[in-house]
């Protein structure tokens, strides 16, 4: 049906490549590209061994538009799945525009030199993609991604108005390491050390990092200390669902993780400001990334599971209604299927699903879109088929004040 180019060969890229290969009737040709081609070759070899499907590999520097354009023109994909670094989003979007190819990513753009992420840079591409007749899908991982689809599904089927939204993200897994991040350490540490931010009564409210925490009960896991942080899908969801009175995002962090994080920040290793070391300019956070465990290598001994979902309160037929929709993903199950841990799996599977729906014509249109702007039903159907089954609870205590 279509050709796909996957850019990025970390844990998420591995999952996307595996799942595209498992859906080879839709993804008839697959190429995996990265700055380090050997990583692509290793994934391709595993896929050939496990699934009997051959995929192509290539080397590309996603910071360099001409390199991207050359690769895209040589392969001629129908869609590019960007699972590289968030600060490479714009160069890949520029290359897609120049080569007339559809685009999809899993995380919004953030500048390399500033710990800040927002959709304004990518939303500014709306007229360019519209004029080119191309589709750009933003934030099609799990959060952002499935959480936006969950919200859209709730709005379509169960609510006349959504008033309160709490996105809850729990990783109750144990990878056996003293300290490790579940995705790219540079991006992860930048993200979780920012000020908290949530939307309430028509405006954004700021909190100190990890200032607000509470115990939240997660299905099959139990109570876990969860902290209010800012996450990018809040920005698009309050825009696309204007009846919201409040929208928040909660994520679990262990005491051990937060202790390590405080030490990292206190000794300056979380800084993105370059320093001079023995006559060389280095960025402390990038150096730290080089010595921390590779998230792509955590899967083999990872125990436990994740639980991510949306807790929604609003009005239906004039009466108050509550709704909770979620997915639990076991790390060992993810590893058995793709040789990746659950956090990579829950990000990579939705990216494949979104690209599949674009190729099938179920999602599309000219312009730049967040996932909640599309019909949620085919995505929800695919989640159940592709390894991320979801569950829903109606009119329950959401435990959210």
From TrEMBL:
Residues in Saccharopine dehydrogenase NADP binding domain copies: 4-137
Name by which UniProt lists this protein: Saccharopine dehydrogenase family protein
Species assigned in the record: Imperialibacter roseus
Limits of the Saccharopine dehydrogenase-like C-terminal domain: 141-388
Superkingdom, natural source: Bacteria
């Amino acid at each position: 049906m279509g050709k796909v180019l996957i850019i990025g060969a970390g844990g998420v890229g591995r999952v996307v490549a595996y799942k595209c290969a498992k859906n080879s009737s839709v993804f008839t040709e697959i190429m995996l590209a990265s700055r380090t081609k050997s990583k692509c070759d290793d994934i391709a070899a595993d896929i050939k061994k496990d699934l009997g499907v051959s995929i192509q590999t290539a080397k590309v520097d996603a910071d360099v538009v001409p390199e991207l354009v050359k690769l895209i023109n040589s392969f001629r994909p129908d869609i590019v799945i960007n699972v590289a670094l968030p600060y490479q989003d714009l160069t890949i979007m520029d290359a897609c525009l120049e080569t007339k190819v559809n685009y999809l990513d899993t995380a919004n753009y953030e500048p390399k030199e500033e710990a800040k992420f927002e959709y304004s840079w990518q939303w500014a591409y709306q007229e360019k993609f519209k004029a080119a007749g191309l589709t750009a899908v933003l934030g099609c991982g799990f959060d952002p991604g499935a959480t936006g689809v969950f919200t859209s599904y709730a709005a379509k089927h169960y609510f006349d108005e959504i008033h309160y939204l709490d996105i809850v993200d729990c990783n109750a897994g144990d990878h056996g390491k003293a300290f490790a991040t579940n995705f790219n350490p540079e991006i992860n540490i930048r993200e979780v050390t920012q000020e908290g931010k949530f939307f309430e009564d028509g405006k954004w409210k700021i909190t100190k990092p990890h200032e607000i925490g509470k115990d939240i009960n997660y299905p099959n896991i139990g109570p876990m200390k969860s902290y209010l942080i800012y996450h990018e899908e809040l920005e698009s969801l309050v825009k696309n669902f204007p009846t919201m009175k409040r929208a928040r995002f909660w994520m679990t962090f262990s005491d051990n993780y937060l202790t390590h994080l405080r030490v990292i920040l206190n000794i300056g290793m979380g800084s993105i400001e370059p320093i001079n070391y023995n006559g060389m300019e280095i960025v402390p956070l990038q150096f730290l990334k080089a010595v921390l465990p590779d998230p792509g290598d955590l899967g083999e001994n990872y125990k436990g599971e994740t639980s991510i979902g949306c807790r929604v309160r609003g009005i239906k037929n004039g009466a108050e209604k509550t709704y909770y929709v979620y997915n639990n993903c076991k790390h060992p199950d993810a590893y058995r299927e793709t040789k990746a841990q659950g956090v990579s799996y829950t990000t990579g599977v939705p990216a494949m699903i979104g690209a599949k729906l674009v190729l099938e014509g179920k999602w599309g249109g000219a312009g730049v879109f967040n996932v909640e702007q599309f019909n949620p039903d085919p995505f929800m159907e695919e989640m159940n088929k592709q390894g991320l089954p979801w569950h829903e609870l109606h009119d329950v205590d959401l435990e959210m004040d």
